[in-house]
C-alpha cells in the first residue's frame, strides 16, 4: 500500500456508507431526529446569545424566553429552518452555523453599541447611511479604547478562526447526498416563504397575530424589546431600500420646469400655527348615529375642505411627514415610515424655510419626545426646538392624557411671549385611542345609535375628545382675532379614529379598518378629515375640497402671503392638476379619479417630476436644491415684499 506523503491534503470524504441521505455515521439510530434536535439546540443557543448581547441583561433575556407566548420561540424555529436550508445549499451538515452565527452575533453587537451610544436600535436602513455606523467608532475609541482594541483583535482573530474552521469542516465532514439536500430544501423553503409572507406589518395576519408577533412600528425600542432583535430587524427590512425612479439623472432633474417663483415673505411676517389634532373627525358621519349637541360646531362653520389622509386609524407620523415636507408617501415603499427609516440627515421642510426667513420654528407635542422618533426628525427638519412631555410645564389632563385645552394655552403663551414671528407645529394627544367606555366622568354629549352598549359608550368617549378639540380651535381663533400681528391657523385631523367595532355595528364599514384599496368614493369617505386654514386678516380659505397633506404647505403659505419655489411654485402648479396624490389614487380638482395609477405603463409627467424631485432631495444628489430649496444651500435671507 502506498504511503500518503506528509503534507499532502487528504481528500474530503464523500457520502457515508449505509446512510447517504443524511451524512451521518452508519450504525447510529435516528439520524434525522438527531440532526433536527441538534439544529434546534444550536438555533436556541444562538438566538439566546443574540438577545443577551443586544439587551446586555442576562436575566432580562431569560425572562424574555420564559414567557411561552413571546416571539422568541418563533425566532428559534425560524433560525433552525434557516440553518437546515443553508446546510442544503452548502452541502454539509451544520456548516451553516459558520455563516449565520458570526453574521448575527456581529449585528447584535453593533445593535447594542448603537443603542448604548445613540439611543436607537439597529435598523436595516442604517446600512444605507454609513454615518449611523461610523459615528459609533469615534465614541467607542475615545471612551473605551481598550474595548476598541479588543474589537480589532477580535475581528482579526475571529476571521482567522473562521477561515481555519471552515477549511477543517469541509475536510472532515462528508457532503450530503442529493436526496438529503432536496429533503432539507423541500422542508425549509415553503415554511420560510410562508413566514416571509406574513411579515408585512402593513396588513393584518392571523398567523402572525397568533404567534404574538406584534409590529410596534411607532415605538421601535418597544418593537425590539417585545419581538426580539431578529424579528424586529426583519420587520424593518422591506423599508431598507428605495430604488431610484426610472430615468433619474442630473439631466432629468434639470429638465423639470422651474415655476419662476422666488422665496418672499410679507413685510409684516404672519405667525403660522398648525395644529394636527389626534384622530379628529366628524363622528356624526356614522350611519344611524345621532349626537347632541353638535360636537364640532366651530370646525363645521370654518371648514375649508378636507385633508385626505394616506393612513387609517394610525401611523400619524406619515401624515406629519407630508404636511411638513410637501413630499408624498406615495413614492416610498408601502408600509414604510419615513420618520423611522429615511429621515437620517437634514431634510427640507416648512421649518427649514421659515427659520431661514427669521421665524422661530417650534414643535409642540405633550407626549414623549421619542415617540415616532420625533426628537431626531424635528431636528433634521430644522426646528429650533421641540417641546415635549419632558420639557413642557406640567399639563392638565382630561381623561388619561394631556388635554387639548392645556396644549392650546401653551401655544398662546409661547406665541405671545415671542418677539420674532413664530411657526408652530403642534400635535395634540388627548383624543388618542383606544376609546374605552366611560373615559370621561362628566360627558357633555349624548349618543343615540342602534348599537351595543360598549360601542355606544366608546363612541361617546371619542365624541367628548372631538368636542374638546373643537373648543380648543375656537379659543385659538378668538385669541388670533384680537391680535395685531397677522396670524394663520391650520387645523386638521391626521386620520380617522381607530373606533373598530363602532364602524362595523353602525354599518360605516364592513371591517374594523378600511382596506388599502377601494373605490374612490369610499376612499374619500374613509380617509378624509376636516381641514381649516384660517387667517385673522382674510378669514377661512374656502372650497379646497379634499387635499393630500403634501399640498398643505402650498395652501398654508398662500394664505400667509408667502411664496417659495417648491412649496408654492412647484406644488402650486401640481395642485392645478391634482388635489390628492396617494399611492392608490390620483384625484383631479374636478374629482376625476385614477386608481392604481402607479401600475400603469404611462404616468403623468407632472407626477413623475414630483417623484424625481422627492427622490433627489431625500436619497439622491440634491441637484434640485438650488432651484427648489435655496434655503438649504444659501443662507441669504430672501427679499420682502
UniProtKB/TrEMBL annotation:
Predominant cellular place of this UniProt entry's protein: membrane
CDD domains xrefs: LTA_synthase (cd16015)
InterPro entries from the UniProt entry: Alkaline_phosphatase_core_sf, OpgB/LTA_synthase_biosynth, Sulfatase_N
Subcellular location: Cell membrane
Record-annotated Sulfatase N-terminal domain positions: 270-562
Name used for this protein in its record: LTA synthase family protein
Keyword flag Transcription: no
Topology in membrane: Multi-pass membrane protein
Zinc-finger as UniProt keyword: no
GO cellular component term, pick one: plasma membrane
Keywords: Cell membrane, Membrane, Transmembrane, Transmembrane helix
SUPFAM superfamilies: Alkaline phosphatase-like (SSF53649)
Endpoints of the signal sequence: none
Residues that span the membrane, as ranges: 32-53, 73-90, 97-113, 146-166, 187-206
